[in-house]
Every structure is written in structure tokens, then in C-alpha cells.
């Protein structure tokens, strides 16, 4: 539990309140499970605070995240019906990004990843959301499909109050450098070591 | 993303399907943020699969988890209204456990923790839930308030199909030994290092 005591106070000319409320860039990386699930757990807090949520999944097949998607679509409906929480938009690369409505035949994953990032950059500039989950976005960065320096500068220059959480293994050094909070999920023990495969309610 | 290829297949007389569907004991430990948030992210999947959820928070003050609680109460209501997902029960130690309705004056935290565990043990025996989050339960174990061996044997002997996720620092060795999946959240970088305190939508 946070004890509310910073280990140092920087000489940056900001008040504690300004510093406290600065929007965060968060990276969940490492080899182990929990990177995306922790990002979606954070999104629950954002939802409750009324921050409009945008989820962008950089995955070929998003079948492993259907549980979270269904729950957040239900929470979006709660917001529509009652005003509680915040709106949630959920987009995935796998079937062609939702805003383009291209279907199925997308074979150019690098192109799709670049197209996804271009849309996110537009949304950051126009302050479209308050809380972004860029799920598994480290992969297109790591593979060189999307330019890391361009991403870092768009993130550094984003206006207003927009939190961004990026998940995935192999987070590039420049992204870690730019981030405010970086968590590495480390394996201690995994059921696959005992010959088990994934199962519903846990993996998806 | 799971590749579905176990690194070894044990000689335990079980079929792959039996092994696959064995209920899991999961531990999220380590010094860093993300332990509870990842547990609640997993609970979203369980909700979507229709596993009745029981959350038990072993914390004096649960103010840091209000976002998740509000979102899961909304999801419980969605289940009541539409049948989608699963019911969610949420109990916390801080104000006296919900089922006892004691208010405010609880000063005996060790006693409250033991009482919480006794109720969870009863629920495990009667298969009350399909997915349990024992949030920050490692602390009463670490401090010796609740007996680790008793907990481990109740978990090992739990009937039916009940997943259990336990979060907190300093997970006792016997608990790690009994767990199927253990993730350690490791700090790479934290905003408090840069003189920032916690903020809404991130810490609560």
C-alpha cells in the first residue's frame, strides 16, 4: 500500500499537487503473466474515476482477452445506462482495426500496427480518452514495425491529462526511459512447468 | 501469449483435459505494484466465464481499492439484471467483515484476520464461489496471525473447481510451494522516485 512519502522531491518548479496529478506513462513488461491483466485492473480504477477509456490491442488474434473485453463492454453499457463510471472503447488489430472496418484479409501486420499507432497518435493529440491501454504494443516496437522515437515523442508531447499503459515483453529502452512507472512481471512458477495447458477463466 | 505447449508432461495418471481443468492456486507477490490489479484483471475473465466471485480484502483501510470495488459491484448488478457474467461478493476486513456487520471499533486486527480466514475456509468447503481473490492475505500469514500450514492444507483439500488468487508481499515459502502459478512483480521504475505521490485513477 502506498505510504504517500516520496523518496525525493525534484527541483522541477512544480507544486506537489501538479506533480501528483501529472498523467502517467506506465509500462508492464517481463516474461510472465499479469502484464495485461494488471493493465485492465488499473483500467477499472480509471473507469470508476470517470476517465474515458480506450483499449488498443496489438495482437493478431485477441481470443485470449475476451473476458476483459466482455466485462468492459458491460461497464461501457453501465455508463450509457446510468452515467456511472466512464465510456469504454475497445479496438483490436486482429480483424482489422474497428474504425476502418476492414475484415479478415489483413495480412500486412506491420502495416496494421502502424495504422493503429497513427490513430492513437491522433487521439492523443485531440485528447480523445483519459486512460489508454496499448496492449502488447511493445512487440511492433521491438520488431521495428513502429518507430520507437516517434512513439516516445508523441507520448512526451501529449496534451492534457491522459494516462497511457503499455504492455508486452521486450519493452524498448527508450520507452522504459520515458516511462514514469515500469513493472516487470517475473516468473516464479508456472503451471505449464507441471504439464498443464491454459484454461478458461484464467487464460481467457 | 500462451503457446499451448507444456514444457513437460507429468506421470500423474491424469489426462491432459483433467490437468488442464484443475483449479489453480495463484500467488501474486513481490515489492511492486500490480499484484492486486492483476488479480482483479483475472477476476474479469472469471466473471465472463460465469464463475461466482468472492473478494476478501485483508486490509485495515480499503480506500485504495475503491475503483475495483465499484466496477465489480456494477458487474454484479449487470449479472442480476441480465444474467451475463457471474455474481460478485466483496468483503473487507477494515470495517469489520461484511457478514458479521460489526462496525468501526474493531481493533483486534489479528482476530479479524483469523475470523476472515475461518469464513473463507467454510466457503471453500461448501464450494461457495468459483473464483476467490484473497487480497493482501500474505500479510496476516507473514505476521503469524493466521497459520500458514492450516491455510495450505485447506487450499490443497478444497473440493470441486475453485480458483484462488492470493496477493501481497512476503508470500510464505509453504504457500509458494503449494501454488500452481506464482508471479513476482518487480520494480523497474516508480513515480515516487521522482517525488510524486499517488493519484486517483492510478492508485485507487
TrEMBL record, chains A, B:
CDD domains: CobA_ACA (cd00561)
Keyword Transferase: yes
Keywords: Transferase
Catalytic EC class: transferase
Single GO MF descriptor: corrinoid adenosyltransferase activity
Record-linked Pfam families: CobA_CobO_BtuR
Entry's EC annotation: 2.5.1.17
Protein name: Cob(I)yrinic acid a,c-diamide adenosyltransferase
Gene, per the UniProt record: cobO
Amino acid at each position: 500500500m502506498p505510504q504517500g512519502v516520496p523518496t525525493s522531491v525534484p527541483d522541477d518548479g512544480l507544486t506537489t499537487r501538479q506533480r501528483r496529478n501529472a498523467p502517467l506513462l506506465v509500462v508492464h513488461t517481463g516474461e510472465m503473466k499479469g502484464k495485461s491483466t494488471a493493465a485492465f485492473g488499473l483500467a477499472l480504477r480509471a473507469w470508476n474515476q470517470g476517465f474515458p477509456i480506450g483499449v488498443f490491442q496489438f495482437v493478431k488474434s485477441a481470443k485470449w482477452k475476451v473476458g476483459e473485453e466482455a466485462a468492459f463492454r458491460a461497464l461501457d453499457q453501465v455508463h450509457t445506462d446510468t452515467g456511472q463510471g466512464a465510456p469504454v472503447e475497445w479496438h483490436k488489430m486482429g480483424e482489422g482495426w474497428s474504425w476502418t472496418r476492414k475484415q479478415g484479409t489483413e495480412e500486412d501486420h506491420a502495416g496494421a500496427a502502424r495504422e493503429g499507432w497513427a490513430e492513437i497518435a491522433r487521439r492523443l493529440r485531440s485528447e480523445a480518452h483519459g486512460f489508454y491501454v496499448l496492449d502488447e504494443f511493445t512487440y511492433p516496437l521491438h520488431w521495428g514495425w513502429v518507430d520507437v522515437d516517434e512513439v516516445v515523442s508523441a507520448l512526451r508531447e501529449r496534451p492534457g491529462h491522459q494516462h497511457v499503459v503499455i504492455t508486452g515483453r521486450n519493452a524498448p529502452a527508450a520507452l522504459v526511459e520515458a516511462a514514469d512507472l515500469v513493472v516487470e512481471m517475473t516468473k516464479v512458477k508456472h503451471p505449464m512447468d507441471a504439464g498443464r495447458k491454459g484454461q478458461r477463466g484464467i487464460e481467457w
